[in-house]
Specification:
single chain; 256 residues; five-stranded antiparallel beta sheet; 3 helices; 18 strands
């Protein structure tokens, strides 16, 4: 027998030893357990938890039906503190990637989502924490609503019906809606009505509003600029862009 045919005791033990189990494969569906304790955010208003990221921009007389109009701004890498929201309706002014722990997901989950500029969203009540995980500033306008109900004008006729070329519903449920409005200089809409709502101006320089179903002597000529917040009474009116710039706005309105 040659040397090559001889096996040492060590060689035999190596051959007889069972093979090691392979390392378990990563589970792509497994959720990360967040490090943050969301319980500390229970009952904490976003503007109180993170005043540098959330501002209450409701008009002096308040937003309709005890709601609050909030502006959220967050730079890349910023993360807020846990806080709680009632049901709220959003318009994305400047989109980007955000990482959310908690609502609208289970409080044990953390997910990254991309929000696109110009989209509307409805977010259920809950506690969460948000991080700007993208590389651009994020700006979000949203209204936190109460359970208070408002009035519906008699023979209500929504502007999305009378002038769909000017009014687009971005998000809605049975309670509230998010609507985008746009008019070029000289354009005006037909008589229409609104339930309780609040308007945020995105652009433009002047609009004229006639209350009621017809254009009469009584009218309001209103200089406007981006960032203005306009509470508008319930009822009928007619709107015309009497400025030199395209007028655009987003508003939040009771849906029923």
């Amino acid at each position: 027998m040659s040397k090559n045919d001889r096996k040492t005791e060590t060689d035999k033990k190596k051959e007889e030893a069972p093979a090691a189990d392979p390392a378990p494969a990563a589970d792509p569906d497994k959720k990360c357990t967040p490090c943050v304790d969301l319980k500390v955010g229970k009952g904490v208003f976003c503007c109180a938890a993170c005043p540098e990221n959330y501002k209450d921009i409701s008009p002096e007389g308040g937003a309709p039906l005890e709601s609050k109009l909030i502006m959220m701004t967050m730079k890349p890498g910023e993360v807020d503190k846990p806080h709680e929201h009632p049901q709220h309706y959003m318009y994305i002014l400047k989109g980007g990637k955000v990482t959310i722990t908690g609502a609208p997901f289970p409080e044990t989950e953390t997910k990254e989502i991309e929000m696109k500029s110009g989209m509307g969203m409805i977010v259920p009540a809950g506690v969460h924490q948000v991080k700007n995980s993208g590389d651009t500033d994020v700006e979000i306008l949203f209204i936190e609503v109460s359970e208070k109900k408002g009035e519906t004008p008699e023979a209500h006729k929504a502007p999305q019906e009378t002038n769909p070329e000017h009014y687009t519903t971005l998000a809605e449920d049975k309670e509230w809606m998010v609507v985008k409005m746009e008019m070029k200089p000289g354009e005006e809409d037909l008589p229409h009505s609104h339930r309780d709502h609040i308007v945020f101006i995105l652009g433009g320089d002047e609009i004229t509003i006639w209350p009621g179903k017809e254009k009469g002597e009584k009218k309001l000529v209103a200089p406007i600029k981006a960032g203005d917040v306009l509470p508008v009474p319930v009822g009928y009116h007619i709107v015309k862009n009497t400025g030199k710039e395209t007028m655009s706005a987003v508003y939040f309105e009771r849906a029923s």
